[in-house]
Protein: Outer membrane protein beta-barrel domain-containing protein
Organism: Hoylesella marshii DSM 16973 = JCM 13450
Amino acid sequence: MNKNIAWMFVFAFVSLSARAQTERVDTTLNIAEVKVTGHTTIHKVDRTLLMPTAEERKNSYTPYELLMKMAIPNLRVDIMKKELKAFGQDVQLRINGIIATSTEVAAILPRDILRIEMIDHPGKRYGDEELGAVIDIIVKRRESGGEINAQLRNSPNVFFGDNFLSAKFNHGRSQWGIDYCINYRAVKHMHADMDEMFLLGGKTIHRVQEGIDDRMRYTYQDLGLFYNYMLPERFTLNIAMRNNIRNAPHDNDRKSRIYNAATPHLQTFSIVKDHPSHYTPSLDVYLQYLPTKQQTITVDLVGTIIRSRSRRSYKEYVLPQSPLADITTRVKGLKHSFTGEAIYDLTLPSKAVFSTGIRHYQAFAHNEYTGSNTALSEMNQSRSSAFAELRGNLGKVSYTASAGLTRSFFKEGGERHTYTLFTPTLRISFAPHKNGYLNYRFTTNPVIPELSSLTNVEQAIDTIMIQRGNPNLRTYSVYDNSINYTFNKGKVSAALYMRHIYRKNCIMEQLFEERGHIVMMDDNQRSLQSLSFWPEFTLRGLDLFGIKNFLTLGLEGGFSRYWSHGNDYYHTYNSTYLSCSVTMMYKEFSLMLKQSTRNSWLYGETIRKGENISVAVFTWNHKRLSLGAGVFFPFVNNYRTGSERLAKVASSTSWNYLKEAGNLFVLTFGYNIEFGKKYNAKKKRIENSDRESGVLKVSN
């Protein structure tokens, strides 16, 4: 922790040295070509436009590096995992308005990126009410020829790799594309330490599990085929066939030395072996038709199949040949799902935009459980919704108002449930002064239970803990209020955010004693509330040491208060965090540094403890060649994340350690071949996907 704080002071000192740079820039902006020589942030009715500088594009190896260098407020970038978070929630990725996977985004050449469009708390129009933001990357597209792009990232001392190859070909109004990505990991020094207190039969059992190093290994592969046809200002067809393969022979293997704290000399040993795998093909057909310049009709149809297999075993023993417990669970799962959506947009004479749409999701899951416990689960789940939205301007005030109705249905065996929820949304924004922007948003969103939680099946975790599904889970509502103020002037950007979330009758964990065991299951609890404040400050493209646009600095901190009110428990928790990023660029070279303290949160009866993030990446870009080197967690000898469970009948503290992640050194290589002219691609406005298999998830 002291090293983390020291590095943040170093970052702050560098920024103060450059603070005196107040050179004003030209304020012209050509939206058609996105030729920016002025403000790099522009606020629209429903989104924020962010313009990367030429230096940021030139000195970025991937779009994820570019996003980190841009220091976008409220956007957390994990360049190692290729993940984005906004407001602590997931981010939906798009390329020219078309939904994209992390692999497809990584295949973009940063120099082809025109701008980033960020839509925070997007809500109903984008299909997923739980999204923190939508990041739409607007890029150039060729009308003839194409490109081939290869990017490799591997570690010389750890079995670690993220590699992919992509190709696109354009002819007239058509574009064909293919991409392949393979990610793999293998480590030999992973373990978990747990300290648990169980209340069973009126007696307290203090169980200690000391982790013994074990291995972790997995391979993820993605293969995508794409076709796009566009008749400008009239018609767009986009077809995507995606294949996702996951195989983890050692996903969460764990060895432990177990003993009662009262008798530490009496020890047993446990071994957990976990091997999940799945194959997920999907077909996405998207159509957009413009009958007139004022009207747009958009349709998106997605079909998905998830074939999953998993095998988990738990063995506890004093002598290996005489196990005290030997629990095996095998699951064979098959899920079919369909998502259809249609949206109609009309631009009114007042320039306001009226939108209305319908959406339907249907899923069928068939899961066979064998081993120590045998069960068959067949589930049917659907969700139908409709909405209407109006967005526009009243003088200096921008507004978005919408109302929706959602109906959810679930059936398994003799159990069936139907729920209907009303979901209004209101957003108001205005500029109180020249360089300031104030935004308020209120949303109500429905959350339907996952099939994996609804299944009427139970699995033994170990000799004490049991995981059980709950088919009686109900859909619940989330009420979200947020207000933020942003200030942008020249190269200075500052923001202050406040957000309150109230989840009524939300689905959270429930632990209780039953016949000498602790049962863990999800249930509808009373409520979960959170109140968060966080300021952000960015200095971007500062001139230093006589070098133009040399330094970009981002500082962010935050405080959150949580209230978790269960049916028979009540917990509160305070969380703080601090993050700092520094990017230095000179000609074809760039150095990027980032440090973040642990950001933790409370949900139900569990406090999830985040990770202390530290990364340093150096890159050299020359024409079509990119070379780089980086180190992740350079100040950590043994990377760890943890959790704390507050339940009276089963409290615990656990830490997961992964030695190979500390001081992880990687080398990067990129090369691309491109040919042909370019033009701006037509946007796809909606997207749907399905990644949830419906198999009961076991908590380790």
